[in-house]
Structures are given as C-alpha cells and as structure tokens.
From TrEMBL:
Keywords: Cell membrane, Membrane, Protein transport, Translocation, Transmembrane, Transmembrane helix, Transport. It is found in: Cell membrane. This is Preprotein translocase subunit SecF. It comes from the Bacteria. One of its GO terms (biological process) is protein transport. It holds the Pfam family Sec_GG.
Length: 196
C-alpha cells in the first residue's frame, strides 16, 4: 500500500506557489496571441528582401560623407519605391538597393537616374562603382534550403522530446512549443519587416 504525503511534506516545508490557478488565463492569452500572430501574418504578409524578390544593387562613391536619410527621402520623392540605402566600407561608399520595378529597361538607366537624384540631394559629384541585377531565382533556392533546414531542426527537436519526456509532460511541452514557435516566427518577421 502506498503512503500518501502532503505537498508541504514533499517540498520539505518550503512554500509552494500555486501557479496553476492562472491556467485558464494563460491559455486564453496564449490563444489570443496565437490568433493575432496568424492574422498579422495573413493580412500583412512578409517583407521579403532583395535576395528573395530580385532587384538592382547600385554601389556609389561620394566625394564626402552625406546623410543617408536625406538621400533616401530624395529618392522616394523622385518616385523610387522603397529604396534601401546603407553605408559599406567607408562613410563615402553607399549601397542602394532597389526592388524590381515594372517595365525596368536596364540597370544602367536606373543607375544614372539614381545617381542624378543623389547628386542633386547632396550637392556633390558621386560616381557609380557597380550596378548589379539580383534575380529572384537565388531567393527561391535560399528559401527552399532554409525551409528544409528549419524542418530538419524542428523534426529533430520533436524526436528528442518524444523520447525524453513521457505522457502529460510531452503533450504540454509540445503545445507550449508550438505556440511559442509560431508567435516568435510571426513577431520576428514583423519586426524585421518594419526595420527594412
């Protein structure tokens, strides 16, 4: 016959915190966050970078350093949608990334238009170092390889948990893990898309 113990006896007289009293609230909040994450992902979608969508990369060298925000605003006012500018190398070198435009005739024409706008906004003579078109096929390969790596990692974790835990612990962990993973994925993608 098994001997019965109280919770205090099992914990050697230490205080026991009843965190399970919040289980309904925790499940409710977790469910709301999961639904919000799925809705955001469905409504907003993802802001894929140039590697996945294709576009043009233009490297420009300036005579003297200039404000990137001023150049970005000037490019947007000139009609270029979502130009991404960043310094590389030194403060004189600027990389301009442009998403693919409808009816884009060629990189040289786009490069000369961008160079003209930057020269006017900075009052200096900039020089184009390189113009390169990035195709979306590279992005498709990256997305496929990344998805396969993610699935392999997730499957490995699931197999490990399947053997390491038992019964109710396994089911609870898998439920929490699925919710946490989907929330992190959506909010991480949303945060990254707001930065670019």
């Amino acid at each position: 016959m098994a001997q019965e113990y109280t919770v205090e006896q099992l914990n050697h007289g230490r205080k026991v915190y009843d965190f399970m009293r919040w289980d309904y609230w925790a499940f409710g909040i977790s469910g709301l966050l999961l639904i919000a994450a799925i809705v955001i992902m469905g409504v907003r979608g993802f802001n894929w970078g140039l590697d996945f969508t294709g576009g043009t990369v233009i490297e420009i060298t300036l005579e003297k350093p200039a404000e990137i925000d001023v150049m970005r605003d000037a490019l947007q006012k000139a009609g270029f949608e979502e130009p991404m500018l960043q310094n590389f190398g030194s403060s004189h070198d600027i990389m301009v990334r442009m998403p693919p435009a409808e009816g884009e005739t060629g990189g040289q024409v786009l490069g000369s238009q961008v160079l003209k706008v930057i020269n006017e906004s900075t009052n200096q003579n900039a020089a184009v170092k390189r113009i390169e078109f990035v195709g979306p096929s590279v992005g498709a390969d990256l997305a496929q390889t990344g998805a396969m790596a993610l699935m392999a990692a997730l499957l490995s974790i699931l197999v490990y948990v399947g053997f390491a835990l038992s019964g109710d612990w396994r089911q609870g962990w898998l439920l929490r893990w699925r919710t946490t993973l989907s929330l992190r994925w959506v909010f991480c993608r949303y945060s990254i898309s707001r930065l670019t």
